[in-house]
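I am writing to request your help with a piece of structural work I have in hand. I am sending you one protein, given as its amino acid sequence and as whole-number tokens for its backbone shapes. Kindly check, if you would, that the fold set down in the tokens agrees with what the sequence suggests. You will find the record immediately after this paragraph:
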Amino acid sequence: MKQATSVAMILIGLIGLMGLTAACGTSGPAEPPADEPGAFDPAPALEIAIAPVIGGAPGAAPARTGAAITPAVATGNGIDYHGGPVIGGTVNLYYIWYGNWGGNSAPQILGDFASNLSNASIYRVNTSYSDGSGASVTGQTRNAGSVSVGLTHGAHPSDNDIWLIVNDAISAGSLPADGNAVYFVLTSADVDEGTGFCTSYCGWHTAANRSGTDLKFAFIGASGRCNGSCGGSPSPNGNASADAMASIIYHELSEAVTDPLLNAWFDSGGGENGDKCAWKFGSTYTTGNGGTANVRIGSRDFLLQQNWQNAGGGYCTLNGGGPGVLVDGTSLSGNQAIVSPDGQNRAVMQTDGNFGVYQGGIWAWGTGSNGTGATRLAMQTDGNLVVYDAANSPKWASGTSGSGGDSLRMQSDGNLVIYSGSHAVWASNTNRVIGTTATAPATLGGNVRLGSPDGRFEAVMQTDGNFVVYFGSTALFATGTNGSGADHFAVQSDGNLVVYDAANVPKWASGTNGKGGTHLVMQSDGNLVLYTASNAAVWASNTGGH
């Protein structure tokens, strides 16, 4: 779909492909090249349907909009399947540099982007899309080639000319005819694609048939000529236009792989996955050169628009890892968190600079970076997990660079783990529920806990020195030893329960020594009870009745 300025979206549909009736005139049908008669189907006039800008009234639904069908694909996520194919397998990316790109850093920046996009977290959002044949979008892409063509169709190409530019590159043998690819025609700042670039849209995608093969292609203009209407400042890579183009490329690529023939995935208003998140960036960070970014692809930072996750009810995201997962190349900031699949544990990057784990509302582990000016947590593509401040100075790191770590997972057992594939390379070691019973002699150190059989209650020796019984996040009983330097809780062989500091100075005791207590049980009624060997209760927290 054409990406509009602000959030206006423009749908491009080929009449010959979609059977639409022309509503807007463009240049007439092109003729096949003289040296290759009949080699391609000419692009006819294009029908354009416009969705509203921010605050505008909803426009008419595109003519392609039809009733959703429900084969074995994801449903109920705010975007519907209409029967067409997605692009599976490895998607080849071809760049056609149109116009004057001499002395411009854009080819290097956008080439790096294409070379490192495969399996990046943000691109894996597209893997939540499949089609009725059973094909799914994969996380794989490939920078398959590029060609510079000058101004072969003048400085004011039409939509139809964009197709001719693609066909010319194939006819000349510069690029192959590839049905599992997206061709991007990238126009320089001295080129004005004349049907609404900068005023109505920033890019678009569609498809046309060439010798029996549907070729998917997109127009991406130099955003620098648009006076900010297509983004681009402040630039993380020192080229505002190229950085903005990267965002549009990602937007159109995501739509092209999930709706390549304009008959697969779109919502009731005609909006494709990229449209539903247009100009939404989520949490951002400041790069070393003062630019603004939200994702790292390879060795470069980019500010990319979010994409629509076709799962969990549907939502805009940069993270294609799913619930509880932060995949490499993505970050957390500003109280953003990953939440375990059972919803009970959170790993959160707090605004005080600390990153840590909460289990059922209980603080279980942290980086200790509060007060350092830290602002974001990055799961890096080198496998390292790092807390950075606004100047990109590291304040804490997991020390796992070079480990192959590709995801950070907040697990339902309370453990936060960096994985390389299925192999754990680092953990917070907070999966420390040792069971329902502690039998003397036993010691519970920092955040080691007893859990009730039904999972509703926990007794935990906290790192702040307090020993507490919790019902969810509600404290039912506490020894009141927080701030005392206490660091462990002992179930002693003499029957006494004692909270000690690091020097083994007692800070609290149950006073049950000599009463025969042998085991402490966290019960499903919420009561923590010390029993004798014959199961006679000698002490309790008196928190039962739940």
